[in-house]
Structure formats: C-alpha cells, structure tokens
Amino acid sequence: MKFTCEKNAFAREISLAQEIIASRNALSIMSNVYLEASDDGLLVRATDIKTGFETRLPVETVEPGSMTVFCDKLTVILANIPEGSLEFTESDSRVTVKPSFKKVRFQLKTISSEKFPELPEIEESRFFALPSRDFKDMIGQTFFAVSDDETRFFMNGVFMEKVEGGLAMVATDGRRLAYVRKQLETSIPDFKGIIVPPKILSLVLKHAPDEGPIEVAVGDKNLFVKFGNYSFSTVLIEGQFPNYQKVIPEHQVNRLVVNRQDLMDALKRVAIFVEQKSRRTFLALSEGVITLSSEESELGTAREEIPCRYSGPEATIALNYKYLEDPLRACSTQDVTIEFTEPNRAITVKPDPESFYFHIVMPMQLE
Amino acid sequence: MRQNSVQLFFHVDLDAFFASVEMIDDPSLRGKPVIVGALPGHRGVVATCSYEARTCGIRSAMPISEAFRLCPSGVFTRPRMDRYSELSREVMGIFGEFTPDVTVVSIDEAFLTMTGTGRLWGCPADSAAELKSRVVSRTGLTVSVGVASNRYVAKTASGLSKPDGLTIVPEGGESDFMAAIPIARLWGAGEKTQERFRELGIDSIPKLRELGESLLVSIFGKSGGEFLYKASRGIDPGIYAGEAGSKSISTETTFERDVTDRETLESVLRGMADELAYRAYRENVRSRTCVLKLRTDDFSTSGRRVTARDYLLASDEIYEVALSLLDRRNDNLPVRLIGLGLVNLERGGAFQGELFGEDRTRRTKFERAVFGIQEKGIGKVTRARFIAGPADEER
C-alpha cells in the first residue's frame, strides 16, 4: 500500500478519528485508525466499538491496499511536521511516513486491517434529511442533562422520538429534565423512541456545519448521522426511558420573569460560597425581587438581590445551582421564565418568549 | 523513648453479645444454649451463640441447620438488631468516657486508643477494671479486654480469657506474649494456614519464627508471609489501619471457619446492611459510598468500594450495593473475614428531590418509620424472612 496526500487535509481527518478512539493501548486494534487507499481516494475509519466514524479524502494512490495504525502516534507525528505533501508506504507490518520536503521519516508498526471491527451499515434509502441547525439546536438543549450514573444506563443518553410534525428530544438524570421539540418540514419515517449515547451527539454538535442539511437514519440497534464527507454511527442504549411526560407539570401556579444574564451572573457570585457537595442555593422570591443566597458555612455566606417581574406569594426554593445554571446557559433569549407551584415541587425554566424547549428541575429540601 | 509517647490500646469485645442481650432481657434463658440467627428450617447462619451453645460445638457463621443438628434442644431466636444496637451504643458511649478515640469495629467490638490517658485513669489495669465494672453495672453485659501497645496484640489478648477477661501485655513484652500463645490461637491464621503449619511441623509460635521472612513469603505468599512474620513477633501487621473513625461506620465478622458458599456471605451481608442502615439513621449520617472488605484464606485483604448516585439510606439499598461489590470478586477463595461499611459520611445536609423517585422515597420513609417504631419499643417489626414459619413452631 502506498499513497501520497496533503498533510493538512489528512491531519484534520486523523484528529477527528482520534476523538472517536477511546483506547490508548498501543497494542490494541481499537487504538488504531483504519486506512484504505484505492482509486476512490483514502477511506478512514475509527471506532470505540460503540461509536463508528468513516470519512473519505482525496489522495494519490500509488498502490492500493489497507492497514491500521496507532492513531495516537500518528496524530502526534502530523502535529509536528510542517504542511506539504506526505508519502505513506506500507510493507511487512510497518508503514513509513515521509514528508516530501524534509529529511525525516517515521516508521510505525501496523496491524492487519482484517482484524479491524466491522462498522454497522444501513441502506441509503433509510436516511432522512433535516436542517443541521435544527438538529444541533436540539442537541444543545438536551445533551448536558444526561445522567452519568451507570446504574441508570437507560438515562445515559438522549431520548429521541418522532412527534407529530417533527422530532422531540428529552434528557434527564432523574433530578432535572430537558425537553425540546422541533417542527420539521421533512417527512420522517416512523420509528419507536430511541436512546442515543451523548458521544455521537457532541461530535455532531462540534463538527456539523451550522448551515445545510444533515442526514439521519434510525436502525434497530444503531443511529446513523451523515454530513459533509463524514459518516457517524452509534449503538443505541437498550432499555426503557422513563415516562417523562408524567413529570412535566402541565400547569404551574406562579411565574416570574428575569433577565437571563443577571440571574446567571448572580448565581456565579453566590456559588462562590455554595457548599460544593450539594451545591444547594436558595432563591427567595418576593415582589419584584429574587434574593439568591448560599448556605451559611464556616467560611461565610453570599447573598445577592436581583430585580425580576414577580407578583406571586413570597416563597423560597432551594436548588442545586448547576441545575439552574445549565438551562440558563442553554436558553438563548434575553429573559427567562421560571414557573413553580410549590417550593418542593418541580419547577419549569423556559425562554421568554416561549420557544421550542423548556427545562424541569426538581428542588432540594429547604431545611 | 519519652514516657508519653508510648502507645496504648484496649481491644474490647462484648462476650457472646447477641445471646447475652437475650439473656438479660429474658433471665429464664440464663445457663441455656442460646443461638441467635436464622431459625431452624430456614436458610441462614448463626449470628452469635451463648457459651453454653459453644460447648455443643456451635460457632458463629455456621449454617443454622448444622447448629440445630448439634444442639436440637437449644433456644433458637431471631436477632433483634434494634435492641442490640441500643445496648451497643450504650456500651460504646461508656468507652467514650475513657477516651475520645473509639474505633468501632463492629456492633460488639471496639478499639480504644488509650495513649496518654495515664494521668486521667491511672495504670492500664485500673482503667480496664473500671471500664469493665462500668459496663457491667450499667448494662449487665460483660466484656473481655485486651491491653497492649498495638492493636493486633490487644486483639489477641482480649480473646485469651473470654468471657469477662482482662489480659494486659506490658510494653516491650509483646514478643514474649506472642511466643507463649498456642499457635492455633494465632489470630488471622485460619484453617488452611493451620493445616499448612501442621504439614510443615510448625507447632508453636517460636517454631514459626524460626522461618525467616523471605521463607514465610515464599510459602504463604507476600501478604500472608509478611502478616505471619509480624504477627508472630507481636508487631502490628496493620490490619486495623482502616478508615478514620468518625468518617465511616462499618461492621465486620471474622468467620471461625472459612466460608466458601455465597449464600452464607449474602446472609451475613443482609444482617450487616440492616445494622448499617439502622446505625446511619441513629447517628443522623448518610453516605453514598459503600465498602466491602474481604479477607481470604491467603491473607490477602481487598476493599472494594462503589459510590452510588443517591444516598444509601434503606437497608435494601445498602444490601444491593454490597451484593454488586461481591459480584466483582475475581477469586473464589474461602473467605475468612467480611466487612461492610459506609464511608464519606455526611451529616444532615440537603436532600435533592427526585423527578421519578417516588418509589425510593416511599421505601426509605417506610424503613425509617419502622426504625421509629422499634425505638419507641412499640411492638416488633421485622423482616418477613426472619418471621417464624410453621417449621419453627414444632421445635
């Protein structure tokens, strides 16, 4: 196998491959990136078993063939050589990497490409297209709320389902929940709700363009996403996602509107004194004012008042400040609405004016 | 060495604790073989038995069926963890009058760091006698005390003259003390090791000492060899270093016979989970981290821990986590010692509400209500599996 390519173009794809790979064990094929040179260019594949990645880039193939090579080292090599043309020559379980403009050459051990795991595939006809912007918005509103508690594996991903006229995504760790629903112009094939691991979603968030379409296909056990010259796949999380509709309050009695940035800034300052284990922060509401305060500790306490639009009864709500900060960060409007019925029941945080998403947060005990 | 830098430890063991409590509460049981644990006809093991029962050959952690075969006329009774905890707390409280540094090893066993208490309590003989007399006069329970400059020797000493014993090993006399005890009583050397001793013709501790450390390591493995080398010389092998006092609650049991079947381990863990849940409730602490300690017959001790997302409040939750830790074992070696603990305790503090957590909240509330009832002494609430079935009526 022998090919030449442009270093920059090649390095970009290899660094993405390295993002996929979870293993750092140089002896494992799981740490390797798969390279296949043919007349169609270079096929690059990487996987962590659960997530699959595939891309193609133009190269000049001198001698077709395939191999796998330790991606970590390859990334470092590429980061340390200047741009220009690169030559790869593989023989006898070794690949020689030679820039055309420097008297340097690297030799890397290879592992036979036959041992590289198969990536899941799906028929081309099952892909449907939707605006990349919409898909990224939906991910951005939800994926941070995923649980990392492995004992609740069914909450370790974002739930995605087809709803009338569009798609909905829900994520929860059992204490807070993020919900987003988008109306979409495209017709979406029927599928039963799926639980998507956050890794593929954050890859999409990071690498998908803001403009143009993104293609998605839902298989029995996998989700596939394509954009540009990239194809990603992931194994879906099996299990029953909790009945989330049940915990979304249909109607809240009290409502306040506050400037989002004001609240975020105040929260950040009060958080200096918040006990780091529970992160409990108090929100005392009275007419026109929210008073944020931390718990009294040996070190001291913090307290800040900010104006808001509120005319309900005086009330104090205790919250994990992270559970308030995360949705505030995700909201994109100038003002946000916080709704509640009782201080010990789930509160709703949503943009003002209302949009296609909202967040539910379970408070902490006050005493 | 300056006088005040001499270390002094008491190891205090409540004699046949559960059975003794039963005898205090029901004096008609005195002098009878009392076996506390599972009931005959059920699965489970002996938790504790009275000295009378021990003369029949019954030992703790023995399957209840075997105990029943050895002593069919014995009085078999279910454990009343609430009552034992109550008395245990009282006794531990008395220990606290002697030193602020009490390490509760389990419900019936504690180490007291008595270093530097001489001016307050006089010589160890006086303070130990005072301690024994306070415990018996206030609770009716007898304790066995071992006094030494390190925990291992203190533990060995307390086991020498049970019940109601007091053994003091003078500073500097640890090595002579260990030399004099029968090798069969070398604490930490169980059945298999004893068998190996016999094979090697080692019939006394001085004989054991003749083998150097490297030879011991080659015969008994690294941890086993080092343990035997130190233990036989009265040097603390450091098995009680453990977690710092107030940050954890834990309990442990050393089996008199190494345990190989999982059922017995599960049964013991069940009781331990009950005890921990109750003690955590009483002390108003909670934890998300559970530690399972296992010492196998090759002397290796492992501590496996897991941190759950939620506080482990209910006994069932602690038990489930304990079982998951047991599943992580990668050996099938016989178990000599098993311990379960909650670490990184938090006091009071803030409860996070659950969106989907109604079931869990209900379960914890129910269990706490049960604890409340037990404390008030209103009736008895117990686990269904501990309730006597028809088979028990015939006894």
Task: Give a short overview.
Chain A is an alpha+beta fold and 367 residues long. Chain A contains 6 helices and 25 strands.
What features would you describe in this structure?
The complex is a heterodimer of chains A (367) and B (395). Chain A is α+β, with helices and mostly antiparallel strands. Chain A has three domains: 2-115, DNA Polymerase III, Chain A, domain 2 (Roll); 124-245, DNA Polymerase III, subunit A, domain 2 (DNA Polymerase III, Chain A, domain 2, Roll); 250-361, DNA Polymerase III, subunit A, domain 2 (DNA Polymerase III, Chain A, domain 2, Roll), CATH 3.10.150.10. Helices cover 18% and strands 40% of the residues of chain A. In chain A, the strands form three sheets. Chain A has a 13-stranded antiparallel β-sheet. In chain A, strand 19 (280-286) and strand 20 (289-294) form a beta hairpin. In chain A, helix 1 (7-20) runs antiparallel to helix 2. Chain A is elongated, with a radius of gyration of 25 Å. The mean pLDDT of chain A is 93. Chain B is α+β, with helices and mostly antiparallel strands and 395 residues long. Chain B has four domains: 9-14 and 82-174, Reverse transcriptase/Diguanylate cyclase domain (Alpha-Beta Plaits); 17-80, MutS, DNA mismatch repair protein, domain I (3-Layer(aba) Sandwich); 175-232, DNA polymerase, domain 1 (Orthogonal Bundle), CATH 1.10.150.20; 248-390, DNA polymerase, Y-family, little finger domain (Dna Ligase, domain 1, 2-Layer Sandwich), CATH 3.30.1490.100. In chain B, 41% of the residues lie in helices and 19% in strands. A five-stranded mixed β-sheet of chain B has the order 5-6-1-7-8. In chain B, helix 7 links the parallel strand 7 (143-148) and strand 8 (166-168). In chain B, helix 12 (262-282) runs antiparallel to helix 13 (315-327). In chain B, 43% of the residues are buried. The chains are: A alpha+beta (367), B alpha+beta (395). Chain A binds chain B through residues 147, 149, 151-152, 172, 174-177, 242-243, 246-247, 275, 277-278, 280, 295, 318, 320, 344, 346, 360, 362-365, and chain B through 308-309, 346, 349-357.
